[in-house]
Amino acid sequence: MAKITLSKVRHSYMPNPSRPEDYALQSIDLEWDDGGAYALLGPSGCGKTTLLNLISGLRTPSEGKILFDDQDVTNLSPDQRNIAQVFQFPVIYDTMNVYDNLAFPLRNRGVEKSVIDQRVREVAEMLEVSDMLKRKAAGLSPDNKQKLSMGRGLVRDDVNVVMFDEPLTVIDPHLKWKLRSKLKELHQSIRHTMIYVTHDQTEALTFADQVVVMDRGQVVQIGTPVELFERPAHTFVGHFIGSPGMNVLPCDVKEGVAMLGDTAIELDGPIDRSRQGKTEIGVRPEFVSLVDEGIEATVRRISDVGRHHVIEAMIGSHPVAAIHKGDIPDLGESIKLSFKASQTRLYVDGWLAMQDSPVNRGETYEN
């Protein structure tokens, strides 16, 4: 296991990059503690797999350094970095049985037979495949093949980090929750440093202690699942995490007060008045309520999602969603809304603009 540090890491697939847009990965500084569970989360093309490949040693960064336990490994190969990697599609030997697949990484390193047997049976029990050890891998179901692929990454106890690159993409939806839970359980049991790459917010938020949200080659926010949900550093994070995503409404700021039309909106503390640019209010649907006196809106759509309804309304020409558990208004009906002040914030050019904000504003991000 290892603490992982990225220092001013930047990468371009061009031989001579000269402009910011030439870089697939913008400058990144971060540190992950030994034994933690981390996720890289973002849409396709955001740079998360590029970053994973830089950490694993499959690629060398154009600029910056990568350190494991403060040792510079920037130019070391994956085997020199002692990396285990689990890919989107299972990497197993179909002609071998389950036992031999799990034993193979250890046999390759000359581990004693008794130690191999102990580790194989320990990992098989953790993965709940002990009754399959004599079965040929070719005959396994897709989820058990991916379990086996995970096991090949976990069977070594000397790795610095185990990396998962969208490992549940090919798994049927009804089986994903089982494997997600199993992976979280495995981390709590063996405490390897683990990095999980995904575009699925549910996978990232259920697995990771800390999530790195990426967009357009940049780290937009690093935080716990609760921090990302309750205090998005950027409107992109608000949109990307949550279902439905955060409401973002254009507003004016007059003498330090956010105005939605003629209505003053109470916010979670004072505004950072030094910030200049496009101003917007951000509030999640969970914190929008139907009230007797409030902001006027018109119901446009109602969605029944089981435990509650999502009411989509229009404030003027701007849509806003509210999660509601009470009586349901009619389509086209005029309603009044209020925003929970402690969860309502101002954003300037997409970035959180509240005083004493603990988040990185990332001034170089272009919305």
Per-chain topology:
Blueprint: E1 4-11, E2 25-32, E3 37-41, H1 48-56, E4 63-68, E5 71-72, H2 78-81, E6 83-86, H3 98-107, H4 113-127, H5 142-154, E7 161-165, H6 173-190, E8 194-198, H7 201-207, E9 210-215, E10 218-223, H8 225-230, H9 235-240, E11 247-250, E12 252-254, E13 257-260, E14 263-265, E15 279-283, E16 288-304, E17 309-315, E18 318-324, E19 334-339, E20 344-348, E21 351-352
Q: Any idea what the radius of gyration is?
A: 24 Å
CATH topology of the largest domain, which one? Rossmann fold
Determine the number of helices (DSSP H or I, runs of at least 4 residues). 9
* CATH superfamily label of the largest domain: P-loop containing nucleotide triphosphate hydrolases
What's the main sheet like?
6 strands, mixed
Low-confidence stretches: 359-367
As an assembly, this protein is: single chain
- Compute the separation of the termini in Å: 37 Å
- Total of domains: 2
Tell me, rounded to a whole number, the average pLDDT: 90
SS-based structural class? Answer: alpha+beta
Strand content: 25-35%
Helicity range of the residues? Answer: 10-25%
Largest beta sheet: strand ordering: 6-7-8-3-9-10
CATH level-two architecture of the largest domain: 3-Layer(aba) Sandwich
- For this structure, what is the CATH class of the largest domain? Alpha Beta
Number of E-state strands: 21
